[in-house]
Amino acid sequence: MNTRMSFNEQVYALVRAIPHGRVLNYGRVAMLLGVPHGARAVGWALSNLTANDRGVPWWRVVSAQGRVSIKGAPESAFEQRQRLEAEGIVFDANDRFNLDRYLWTPDLPEVEAILAQAAGDQHA
DNA sequence: CAATTGACTTGAT
DNA sequence: TATCAAGCCAATT
User: Fold this and answer.
1) Mind listing the pLDDT tens digit of every residue in chain A (124 residues)?
2) FRET pair for A28, CA 20 to 30 Å: which of A35, A54, A59, A69?
3) Residues with CB under 7 A from strand C
4) Among residues A8, A43, A13, A25, which one has the least CA distance to residue A111?
5) What angle do CA A22, A50, A112 make, to 5 degrees?
6) Considering the entire predicted model, what is its pTM?
7) CA A41 – C1' B10 distance (Å)?
């Protein structure tokens, strides 16, 4: 076996595991995947999400500053905010929220299990 | 194989 | 606190 998932696929697998009402910033996703400075790569991966990848809660991935960040698509940014608010996340007057309060902090073993299972499903 | 592109981050101003 | 410039990375061309 050892069907290695591409970085993008690993990103999708991890994002899929983010619990309802919790969030993860781009940099942390990269870090959990073993790439400490791959934040931009994570953004690139999510920007390439298509209708086929539905099921990936992309709105739970935010900036390290506690704000939504979708360039060139104000509508999508608004949609992201609405989805987050629907899950209980409260924004302040500056369109920001306390990241530490909603940040998902999975254990490393947990992350590995998630990736391993995703890789397995893909194989099957 | 080099250049380009982005839903990022951080440190300096 | 708000801006700006430089790093950093995977995927695409």
Assistant:
1) 656 899 999 999 999 999 999 999 999 999 999 999 999 999 999 999 877 778 999 999 999 999 998 876 777 899 999 999 999 999 999 999 999 999 999 999 999 999 999 998 876 7
2) A54
3) A 6-8, 35, 37-41, 44-45, 48, 94
4) A13
5) 45
6) 0.93
7) 16
